[in-house]
Design goal:
The complex is a heterodimer of chains A (275) and B (297). Chain A has 13 helices and no strands. With 275 residues, chain A is mostly helical. Chain B has one domain: MetI-like fold, CATH 1.10.3720. Classes of the chains: A mainly alpha (275), B mainly alpha (297).
Chain lengths: 275, 297
């Protein structure tokens, strides 16, 4: 028994060490952002700031385009979330409840959309958006982002809805509720947890997306990833400011993830494990 | 009023998403296919001259396209094998720890949430030759003599591996957590039964765990393989495909051909071929890993 306890402790320590090494890069990013701009480039680099400084964050103030880009990213991500949820909830309900053919067809579509390199459909989307007058608009970029999240959303939501017992709607229907009524009053409230997780996924997918934003937005609605990427080429490399931007950009992602840690992991794994 | 049958109701539910997917996914794919057969300029995207299979011939005979395809394959293999080995290892360790691994798993899940562009930037920063922390650590450990000995992003032989690092870092946790969930779903009685039958650790792993995990492994490998092959932003932010194309994988080559050089037609042909290749590779992977597994059992 004693040796098993010792080996367990050893194993825990080993895993803890691995996890520490794994988490190191991000900790180093945060640490660097809190150094002074000169210290951020010191030779040799230090692990911790010699002196805590918010100068890197203050420097962002000199770049209004970059600041605006965060607002653009937020608007686009919200729009994309609304579009995706509005389209995916009814479709997921149909897939989960009525007929296997629809479910299979949609899973096939999901697989296909995952195979499409964004760079391949970038130009065609540009042509379509231009015809619709949506180039360099929040809605245009949001629609492009939704091409990725609608299939994903349908897949995730369908797996959440499948776990809701059919008896709930059947009881409502017997009580005189219409089909739409059952969806609105029974399914959506019961699946609200799953819908929230899906919404967060969609929001983050749009927040992080790079290539469509690069192709479909110019000065007007430039998103944060693009502004950060251009920041590099435009002003040589100010690594200090760059690290503070990277920290700020990952901030919403981390807040959302910490809030819904378990559900996010469950959501990420549910599709894969259920196959 | 038309009676709302089940069938009509389903169609009504599917229609909005269906229309959206037709306009913004299916139609762009058709346009891509059309462009592959035309000579199209970036400045007159709606026009173009029909050139038959010319674009495909050009794409297939271009050494640069072939090299990019090879690099895409190499990059995918590097990222995928590292993620799979590390992720599987971590999943097994977590599984051995059982419930006590919860906090560690939570921390381990963290890179999962980091935006790819941040990961790319961060690794670019850490890999700078003289001031980067990676070379500094290697120097301190005595592995390299001087902090400028390894030029991670400047060495053409090394760069493909270096640009895979953020990808590996970012997604090993995904692989680990999915495989961990899969491991947790294996009934403990099966492992116990094998133990009673006298199977040793390796036999239990090889004969019970891996076969039962096969569907999960298949899904993880295919999903991650596709994502790695399509990678764009992480490499773009690190090297933009350089030095001298040494990290130019297909998606970067296509982007460049389209936007920088304006060869929309040829770039579309390469993209079409790229997608066909991915469909075939996924189908093959699916068949080999999953199909063969289920016919055995």
């Amino acid at each position: 028994m004693k040796s098993s306890l010792a080996s367990r402790t050893l194993l825990t320590l080993l895993v803890a060490l691995i996890v520490l090494v794994y988490g190191f890069p991000y900790a180093f990013l945060v640490s660097t952002s809190l150094k002074s701009p000169q210290d951020a480039l010191a030779i040799p680099p230090t692990l911790l700031p010699q002196q805590l400084s918010l100068e890197n964050y203050a420097n962002i103030g000199e770049h209004p385009t970059v600041q605006r880009s965060f607002g653009n990213s937020a608007i686009i991500a919200l729009l994309s979330t609304v579009i995706t949820i509005a389209l995916a909830v009814p479709a997921a309900y149909a897939v989960a409840r009525y007929g296997a053919w629809a479910g299979k067809a949609f899973l096939f579509v999901v697989l296909i959309t995952r195979l499409i390199p964004p760079v391949a459909v970038g130009i065609p989307l540009f042509v379509i958006m231009r015809a619709l007058g949506l180039i360099d608009t929040h809605l245009g970029v949001a629609l492009a982002h939704s091409t990725i999240s609608v299939p994903l959303g349908i897949w995730l939501l369908a797996s959440f809805m499948e776990s809701i017992p059919r008896e709930l709607e059947e009881a409502a229907r017997v009580d005189g509720c219409s089909r739409f009524g059952a969806l609105l009053r029974i399914i959506i409230p019961v699946a609200s947890g799953g819908i929230a997780v899906t919404a967060i996924f969609v929001f983050l997918a749009s927040w992080n997306e790079f290539l469509f934003s690069l192709l479909l937005s110019s000065t007007g609605v430039k998103t944060a990833p693009i502004a950060i990427a251009e920041f590099k080429t435009q002003y040589s490399i100010q690594w200090g400011t760059m690290t503070s931007l990277a920290v700020l950009f990952s901030f919403p992602v981390i807040i959302f993830s910490l809030l819904m840690q378990k559900r996010i992991i469950a959501g990420l794994t549910v599709g894969a494990v259920k196959g | 009023m038309i009676k709302l049958t089940d069938r009509r109701f389903v169609l009504l539910l599917l229609a909005p998403a269906g229309c959206f997917l037709v306009i913004f996914v299916a139609y762009p794919l058709l346009l891509l296919l059309r462009n592959s057969f035309y000579e199209v300029s970036l400045y007159a995207l709606n026009d173009g001259v029909y050139v038959g299979w010319d674009n495909f011939v050009k794409a297939l005979s271009s050494p640069r396209v072939r090299e990019s395809a090879g690099r895409t394959l190499n990059y995918t293999l590097i990222a995928l094998s590292a993620e799979f080995v590390l992720g599987f290892g971590a999943a097994l360790l977590f599984n051995a720890l059982g419930k006590r691994s919860e906090i560690l798993r939570t921390i381990f899940a963290f890179p999962l949430m980091i935006p790819p562009i941040v990961a790319g930037l961060l690794w670019r920063f850490m890999l700078i030759d003289n001031i980067g922390i990676v070379n500094h650590i290697l120097e301190t450990l005595g592995i390299i003599g001087d902090a400028s000995d390894i030029s991670w992003l400047g060495d053409r032989d090394l760069v493909l591996f270096s640009v895979a690092l953020p990808n590996i870092w970012l997604t090993t946790s995904f692989v680990a957590l999915v495989l961990y969930t899969g491991l947790q779903n294996i009934p403990a009685e099966l492992i116990e039964a094998a133990k009673i039958d006298g199977a040793n650790n390796w036999q239990r792993f090889h004969r019970v765990t891996v076969p039962l995990l096969r569907p999960v492994i298949a899904v993880v490998l295919i999903l991650r393989g596709i994502d790695a092959a399509r990678a764009f932003d992480m490499i773009w932010i690190q090297t933009e495909g350089g030095p001298r194309f040494a990290s130019e994988i297909l998606s970067i080559h296509i982007y460049r051909a389209m936007i920088r050089y304006g060869n929309v037609g040829e770039a579309s042909a390469i993209a079409t071929l790229f997608m066909l290749g991915m469909v075939l590779a996924s189908a093959l992977a699916f068949y080999v890993i999953w199909g063969r597994g289920s016919s055995q059992s």
